[in-house]
Amino acid sequence: MQTEKPILYNYFRSSSSWRVRIALELKKIDYEYKPISLIKDGGEQYSEEYTKINPKQEVPALYIDGHLLFQSLPIIEYLDETRPNEYQLLPKDPAKRAKARMIAEIINSGMQPFQNLNVIRRVAKETQSEDKKQEWIKFYLTKGFKAVEDILKDTSGKYCIDNQITIADLCLVPQVYSAKRFNIDMIGFPNVKRVNEELEKVPEFVRAHAHHQIDTPQELKEN
Ligand SMILES: N[C@@H](CCC(=O)N[C@@H](CS)C(=O)NCC(=O)O)C(=O)O
């Protein structure tokens, strides 16, 4: 039984953090929001204090039920298993569950890492070129969205898997936001666009949005 309030170590614009914020909202879990700035003072994720929380020096990390958890997808699965409610984020049906995980995995391991701050900084440094960095991001995000779009043709209803919100949707919305930030042309991905627009209307997704957090800069809060 949970006694202490969970603590989410996260950053407003981090797509991995955002996935967990949506899960916490859907599971109706009251939590303390602990901002970890990825840019302030060279990045608070590298501080000695935070490295003790997450040795991978990334957000998110969630302290819950006496456990310190990191890696967004296992966190979401933990919340789903320990807090069953009307939102079952991993569908019961094995084929649907596998397809939801397929989409989540494409985004988690085939897209997000290639736009991750320390990775793109290294690409820019090694190539001495901001253009090469942009090309790199565009290549991997487009490749990932092509695969997701193909899956959605078969699986999507209102959301990624029929009309049930799943772990795939929690990954999709922050990834589409990142794509917009990096100026990726989404014209070839109508199902991604349609499902994303549908999800953006869900109140729990609105509350978890990058522009609605305590560490969101004022100029973005107004958007
Ligand atoms: N697979 C991890 C990825 C975590 C991750 O890469 N987080 C990014 C923000 S979305 C980060 O903290 N980056 C810090 C850096 O690149 O220094 C997860 O899903 O939690």
Q: Please, could you describe this protein's structure?
A:
By secondary structure, the protein is of the alpha+beta class. The chain folds into two domains: 7-87, Glutaredoxin; 94-206, Glutathione S-transferase Yfyf (Class Pi), Chain A, domain 2. It is 55% helix and 7% strand. It has eleven helices and four strands, in the order βαβαββααααααααα. The chain has helices spanning 15-26, 48-53, 72-82, 94-110, 112-115, 117-127, 130-155, 167-181, 190-199, 203-208, 218-221; strands at residues 7-10, 32-35, 61-64, 67-70. A four-stranded mixed beta sheet has the order 2-1-3-4, with helices on one face. Helix 1 (15-26) packs antiparallel against helix 8, helix 4 (94-110) runs antiparallel to helix 7 and helix 6 packs across helix 7. Glutathione (GSH) binds at residues 14-16, 38, 43, 45, 58-60, 71-73, 108, 116-118. Belongs to the GST superfamily. Zeta family. Its main location: cytoplasm. Pathway: Amino-acid degradation; L-phenylalanine degradation; acetoacetate and fumarate from L-phenylalanine: step 5/6.
Kindly summarize this structure in a few lines:
The chain is α+β, with helices and mostly antiparallel strands.
* C-alpha end-to-end distance: 39 Å
Radius of gyration based on Cα positions: 17 Å
Within the largest sheet, what's the order of strands? 2-1-3-4
Parts with pLDDT < 50 across at least 5 consecutive residues? none
> Average pLDDT across residues?
96
- The CATH architecture term of the largest domain is Up-down Bundle
Number of helices: 11
